[in-house]
């Protein structure tokens, strides 16, 4: 297994970029490289920098593996994060991109804050700083064959971030108690609760702020944070309708 000097970090990023360009799933990087989480975020940054150079911009962040359901499904034991780009956001009722390779969907709670967030902020302050909370859906799309990877591989692949759908505003005072029904083609897949995301969606935000600070980054005003899947991700194919519905009948939808 090879080491991870700067040239190999660049090589890994280029392999992921090429696989996406060719729409060809690949074997995990960790099968060839000795990949640490720090290395994985370095690879991720190269990929995102290349997209920014092509005109994309970061509009927020995604948290991955904040729920036990997702960790169990993907056999990982820690969370990760990746950026959300301006071409990833969809309106409710949209169709997913036809360029995705093996898309899956999971229900989430999305948050938007009215100010820049710092490591010094407390949980209560973050709660006060929430501008809006939304019911949402994330579409993930791993580059790795059969969704087989380690957390380091997934992190290098920008946490499988592909697209996300923002639905109606929900009450942000009791996010941990939010009850959401997750459906596929009208059939209930799971009954979810907001506390599935790290006990409370804001706990993931506190973790993310610390991680971003190490990269000299912050959560900026108006950026969107999707706080992690509340249920296991499910596949979506042409003709499928995936929905998440709150107790008070607020709905977010995406079509395959």
What would you say about this model in short?
The chain contains six helices and 13 strands.
Features:
256 residues, alpha+beta, eight-stranded mixed beta sheet, five-stranded mixed beta sheet
How would a crystallographer describe the biggest sheet? Answer: 8 strands, mixed
List low-confidence stretches: none
Helix content: 25-40%
Shape: globular
Q: Tell me how many strands there are.
A: 13
Taking Cα atoms only, what radius of gyration do you get, to the nearest Å?
17 Å
**Overall average residue pLDDT:** 94
Which class of secondary structure composition applies to the elements?
alpha+beta
Q: What does this protein look like?
A:
The protein is globular. The chain is of the alpha+beta class and about 260 residues long. Helix 1 (about 5-20) packs across helix 2. It has helices spanning about 5-20, 35-55, 70-75, 125-130, 150-155, 200-215; strands at about 60-65, 80-85, 90, 95, 105-115, 130-140, 160-170, 180-185, 185-195, 225, 235, 240-245, 250-255. A hairpin with a 2-residue loop joins strand 8 and strand 9. The N and C termini lie far apart (about 40 Å).
């Amino acid at each position: 297994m090879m080491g991870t000097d700067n040239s190999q970090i660049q090589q890994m990023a280029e392999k992921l970029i090429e696989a996406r360009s060719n729409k060809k799933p690949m074997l995990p990087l960790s099968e060839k490289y000795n990949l640490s989480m720090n290395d994985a975020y370095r690879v991720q940054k190269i990929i995102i920098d290349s997209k920014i150079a092509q005109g994309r911009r970061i509009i927020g962040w995604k948290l991955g593996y904040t729920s036990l359901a997702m960790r169990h499904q993907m056999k990982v034991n820690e969370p990760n994060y990746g950026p959300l780009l301006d071409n990833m956001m969809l309106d409710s009722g949209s169709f997913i991109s036809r360029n995705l390779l093996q898309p899956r969907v999971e229900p989430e709670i999305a948050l938007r804050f009215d100010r820049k967030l710092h490591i010094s902020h407390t949980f209560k302050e973050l709660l006060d700083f929430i501008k809006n909370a939304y019911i949402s859906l994330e579409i993930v799309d791993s580059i790795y064959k059969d969704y087989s990877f380690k957390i380091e591989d997934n992190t290098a692949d920008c946490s499988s971030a592909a697209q996300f759908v923002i639905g109606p505003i929900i009450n942000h005072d009791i996010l941990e108690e939010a009850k959401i029904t997750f459906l596929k083609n009208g059939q209930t897949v799971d009954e979810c609760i907001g506390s599935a995301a790290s006990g409370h969606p804001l706990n993931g935000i506190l973790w993310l702020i610390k991680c971003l600070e190490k990269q000299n980054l912050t959560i900026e005003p108006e950026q969107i944070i999707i706080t992690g899947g509340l249920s296991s991700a499910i596949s979506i194919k042409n003709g499928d309708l995936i929905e998440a519905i709150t107790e008070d009948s607020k709905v977010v939808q995406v079509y395959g």
